[in-house]
Write a structure and sequence with these properties.
The chain has three helices and no strands. With 55 residues, the chain is mainly α. It has a domain of 37 residues. The longest helix is centred in the first third of the chain and has 13 residues. It is globular and about 25 Å long. InterPro entries: DUF3489 (IPR021880).
Length: 55
């Protein structure tokens, strides 16, 4: 069963909120996305004003 995008976006936000942040690899593993999809999601979060450390 495919996870809904809303749930995956929430998962990405939680990963980014961790003290150590999140690597692209960890986001891909947590969501099942390919790297280009994870980058697109990060770009979308940035455009909507989500705060991250930018590492």
């Amino acid at each position: 069963m495919t996870k809904s995008p809303e749930n995956q976006e929430t998962r990405v936000r939680k990963l980014l909120e961790r003290k150590q942040g999140a690597s692209l690899e960890s986001i891909c593993m947590a969501t099942g996305w390919q790297q280009h999809s994870a980058r697109l999601s990060l770009s979308g979060l940035r455009k909507t004003g989500s705060q991250s450390s930018g590492r």
